Amino acid sequence: MVETNIIAEPGKQEIIITREFDAPRDLVFKASTDSELVAQWWGPRGTTTTVEKMDARSGGTWRVVQRDAEGNTFAMHGVFHDVTPPERVVDTVEYEGMPGHVVLETETLEDLGGGRTKMTDHLVFQTVEDRNAMLQPGMKEEMASTTELLAEVLQRQISKKQAAPAR
Fold first, then answer.
1. Would you list the DSSP string of 79-141?
2. Separation between Cα atoms, residue 149 and residue 156, nearest integer Å
3. In CATH, which superfamily holds the domain spanning 5-161?
């Protein structure tokens, strides 16, 4: 099993998440910016995600709403600052339950060759306290669960493409 690596050094305002996928970089990029695919993997296992807006272009905005098994609703939104297919997405993330606490996210996709991609997700928080709040018990497992769901979506897309009749 491929592991998600999460680096959160004490006293720093950042979290760095890395994961390798058995999928080509253009597909990983699409899964990160296409509302239909994002809805299938964003959030920990057991939540339902609705993508209300996903305008994946520089200056575009996004908003997602998640619901857990107990019916709790969690909404997030942000702005895309740089979208460079299929290499990089820079956006902000603001959890609506804590307005004013904005995270700058830079997702970089590295083509490893052979249909493999390394994703590096660099999150920079406004304060160390905000970063630490993100690391409450269970949050690292939720982050890893999200990348596992992304890997499953990627594999379904690859299988679908392989099963499609040639034109």
1. EEEEEETTTEEEEEEEETTSTT-EEEEEEEEEEEETTEEEEEEEEE-SSHHHHHHHTSTTHHH
2. 11
3. START domain (3.30.530.20)
Domain chopping of the chain, boundaries:
5-161
Q: Residue 1 pLDDT > 70, yes or no?
A: no
- Distance separating alpha carbons of residues 4 and 15, to the nearest angstrom: 12
pLDDT number for residue 163? 87
Cis peptide before 99 (omega within 30 of 0): no
Strand order in the sheet with 102-113: 5-7, 14-21, 116-124, 102-113, 88-95, 73-84, 61-67, 48-54
pTM strictly above 0.90 = yes
Q: What separation in angstroms does the CA of 36 have from each of 47, 54, 61, 66, 88?
A: 15, 9, 16, 14, 19
